[in-house]
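Q: Hi! First time asking for a complex rather than a single chain. Here are the components, and I think there are three in total. Is that enough to go on?
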Amino acid sequence: MFARIVFNIVQVFVVMLFAPLLAGTVSRLKEIVQSKHGPSIFQPYRDIWKLFHKREYISEQSSWIFRFTPIIVFVTPIFVALLIPVLTSYPLFFAFMGDMLGGGFILALGGFFATLAAVDTGNPYGPMGASRTRLVGFLAEPVFMIVFFTVSFVAGSTIPYIVQQRWVNPISNFFEPTHILVMLAFYMLILAEGGRIPVDNPSGHFELAMIDESKGLEYSGSGAALMKWGGEMKFFVLICIFLNVLVAPWGLARTISVKELAIAIPLVLAKVFLFVLTLVAVECSLAKLRLFRISEFLGAAFVISVAAMIAWVFAV
Amino acid sequence: MTLIAIIILPLIASVLCWIAAIGKRVAAPITMVTFLTLLALAVRVAFQVSANGQLVAIPGWIEADSLGTLILLLVTIVGVLACFYSLGYMPRTTHDKGLLYHYYGNLNLFIFSMVAVPVVVGPSVAWLAVEFTTLLSVLLVGFESSREALEAAWKYAMITLTGASIALFGFLILFWGMRQAGGDSYTWAGLQSVAPQMSPVLMKTAFLTILVGFGAKVGLVPLHTWLPDAHSQAPTPVCALLSGVETTAVLYVILRLLPIAHVVLGTGGERWALIFGLFSVGIAAFLLIQVHDYKRLFAFSTVEHMGIILTAAGLGGAAAHYGAMYQIVSHALTKSLCFFAAGTVLMVTGTRDIVSVKGLIRRSPIAGSALLFGGLAIAGAPPFAVFLGEFAILKAGMEQGKYLAVALLACFLVIAFFGILLHINRMVLGRSNVEFSGNRGIPWPCVLTLAFVAIPVMVFGVYVPQPLHQILMRAALIIGG
Amino acid sequence: MTYSTQAATILTQLNALAGAFFLLSTFGMVATRQVQGCLRFFILQSLFLASSAVLLGLHPLSWHLIGVGIINFINKPIIIPWLLRRTISEEVYKRREITQALNIPISLLIALGLTISAYYLAAPLLQVGAGLPALINLPIGVATLLLGAYILTVRREAVPQLLGLLAMENGAFFASIAIAPELHLFVELVVAFDVLIAVFVIGVLTRAIHENIGTTNVGALAALKEE
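A: Yes, that's all I need. Here is the structure of the assembled complex.
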């Protein structure tokens, strides 16, 4: 019991600690592929550190929503990290609180407040970015739904710890068309939700073309730091859900032992690193889509997720 | 041996025609000689089949029975007539006479595909042959390279090939059904022998998909839309072949399935045939009234007649089947007569528009009377062959007690009768008030063809020769199972 | 579980995966904007068809199915694109956006609806075939048949219409891997040849249309419309 609580807290710390590293690695690798030098992979830590030591300015016109949002954006991924398997293939102490749908709702709450806060200040770029995020969001929503429904349909459960075992037990299940297609659809969703190319350009600095970034333009000081860190954690959590629940539970700790947990941390980071490699490959080979083509990108994801479900129905 | 010769001969002739050095000079004579030889061989096959019941060239692949022979005879007869007609018609209407050898080369290929359909006994090979009838005639339909002709060829290719793909699925299901029932020879006879063990679900699916798929090619409503276009835009001799025998050759494949379906499904297959048939007759009868183009008029009439034949096959019973067979013969001959007449009118007037042709009989007695003769014959006026066929079918239906189907069919036939004659009347009779742009003279091969084909159309209406009667009876028995 | 049955299960799963990608590449044909893209998806589709035949032919070993796979592999991804390039001049199908009657998201939704209805169409057949190792090929084949017909109706450009037709044929053969694996190899060969002739004839026709009318947007041809 005690071990489970400790492990759960370790899990949260891993997410908090390594999320900025993930962001730094992605941008560094991209720069290298594009024959540039690029910032150190630890740059996000320095950014967050620096932002925490700056003064925060808050518009007089804004309401409590604007002040609360950074906290919510920061806290929601932590909550999700309590629920999902990041390091272990067995449920930890707080895992009873919610299933995959619950996790999805919690993340959506953060997104909801970020949208409200963007509208709150009256900055013209904020609402623009917010409405675009919502566009992407509600196109992605049905895909999320279908993916989760398919997964729970196949595994007979929405508990991530049961789902992840389904894919490797027996091993031939890994090659199930449903599994491969669900993976494909969710990968596209991560690109859309994480604001990556081809949906959004995370390193763009042109406000008119921004989707995700422009929501946080008004923040400064510790607010900006929390928003940034929260966003990075959200991305990390999404990748963990993808890698550990939807792909396979390989490399996770199987028993309650400190040793296995200690081995699991580098293994999970290695998996994330592999994912980052594919992400860099995608980002460097595709161009950002025009805004109205995003619906086609997510439409394709939708078709793939439905095809996953159809493949399951056909096979039975 | 004869059957193999029948298949190979047009291929050789076609190759000869395509070789420009030979084709440019003697393509037409080569084709004419080939077709005449084919006819002679087909007659020989008919005699052998009537003596032995069937003729086997390669067991399990190429064989002929009475039903196949009937189709084979019709294809070769109409082929000869069309080729002879082409001798007069094509040089008159083609823009680039240097390319006529393409036409004859293609014509040979087309005939090859059509003689192949009735003599192959494997359903999968029959599917291939039907597919080839489309592929090898597409370029003939678009031969005139006008905007309309190319559009018609495109529609023709797309719709019928789509239908063929659907039918392919049906034939694969049929194969599955045969394997499941324990059969191992995928031929019509092989299917018939394992039919009692076949799964009804598979048979039903196969029959329906083939009926719909090949129905597109036969011109059954609702996939008939390409037919009036293609059958009106192709060069006239090709129209005669398309309308007269190509549709029939494809219908033959559907008819082949009926006895098998009868064993597996009871009257289920026949009921579908009846529904599709009546639907086609009905829709075509009403569409006939609104046409503006006299070649389209005859094309819609083909839709109608295919419907009649399918209805007859669906009514069931030996008498109705005999009527269907008889109707196949009379339709093939009469429809080619109609198209030959229409082609003659086109040569004289230079227009396909019904409204701009009036008082034709005063301008050109030959074209006018041919059109009137053809119109009356195809509409089913006594004493022509079509009338006898339709009458036999209605009578057989009454004897079966299928009053509703018979009443509907009779009603549609009357509508079609008036529809056709309404237009023909306007064109042929009345005072001529338009100056015709076409050349007044009609080439002699065309006149001769008209005369040739008019004889059986009239004679068969009052008298059916004994050998023909024999073949028809046997063919009807084959459909009956 | 013995090694042999495990291998068989994995092969069945891989075949199902090939089927899923086969279906997805058909969706790609529905959704893509460029004629070239449509052709690429068709090539992909044919590759998955060939791989499905080969996968099922591996265990239990059936040279016949492997032969079918090889025929399809040579015929569709290699010869047909070559033939298209030879018969239809480059400018007709390079860098050309396809006009289509419906926009792409709606098309995709309709395509999904068709796929689901294909399952219900195939349901009675599935009951008959219960127990066949590659049964999943049957509903996917039916779905592709419908999707091909849909591509044919919605696309207005000549080459994509032809590709829709070929997709239908692919669908029928994908189903046949499950239901008629013993079909005579001679017939398969002749059908492959027949597909080539179809491509050639329609290619020639397309060129004639392009030369005489000046467009390959066959959907816009309406000289023969009456009423």
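A: Chain C has one domain: 10-219. Let me know if you'd like any chain examined more closely.
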